[in-house]
Design brief:
Layout: H1 16-23, E1 27-29, E2 46-54, E3 57-66, H2 75-149, H3 157-177
Antiparallel strand pairs: 1-2, 2-3
Helix pairs in contact: 2-3
Length: about 180
């Protein structure tokens, strides 16, 4: 019981595909009426099950079925079909690798976009903070100049020295902000 594959054989633990996958060996059945894998079936034909191997593991099975009665397969035909199965396995592995690489590329692209957005947000934040700091520092520098020139009254020696310290520290802060 179970669903039927392209060979007319049941998909079970005694079927052709399962046996080829489990053993990793080719099975060529030249007459399905007389082969034990097809006992009780009315199918009159021939079938070949070929393992698809990659990196020493069976990754699939390729079945070829012939429905026009029994058929003998030459060693050359079987060899060519095995080469075809090897190429199919390589193609499947390459497709899988391509899919994995594509998924990784998409993940990296998303991560880069997120990083770029974070950099933009950081730059905006720094720009806003520097603007907010520049405004009061500019006002402070203006008052320092007014005090230093004496426009707001005369200062004694100690006040001039304190004002010089304030002026140096304000210039330093403006340099940091810039």
């Amino acid at each position: 019981a179970g669903r039927r594959g392209g060979t007319g054989a049941p998909s079970s633990s005694q079927g052709l595909t399962y046996t080829v996958a489990r053993t990793g060996k080719r099975i060529a059945v030249s007459d399905t009426k007389s082969h034990p894998l097809f006992a009780g079936r009315t199918w009159d034909g021939a079938v070949i099950g070929l393992p698809l191997r990659h990196a020493g593991k069976v990754i699939g099975v390729m079945n070829l079925s012939f429905t026009n009665g029994p058929r003998n397969f030459s060693d050359e035909q079987l060899h060519i079909l095995e080469l075809l199965a090897d190429q199919a396995a390589i193609a499947m592995a390459n497709a899988s690798s391509y899919g994995a690489a594509r998924d990784q590329t998409e993940a990296l692209t998303a991560a880069l976009a997120q990083r770029d957005e974070l950099v933009r947000m950081k730059n905006d934040f720094i720009q806003n903070v520097s603007h907010e700091l520049r405004t009061p520092l500019a006002i402070e520098r203006g008052y320092i100049e007014l005090l230093d020139t004496g426009d707001l009254g005369t200062l004694n020696h100690e006040q001039h020295e304190a004002l010089a310290v304030i002026n140096r520290r304000t210039k330093f802060l403006l340099t940091l902000v810039d």
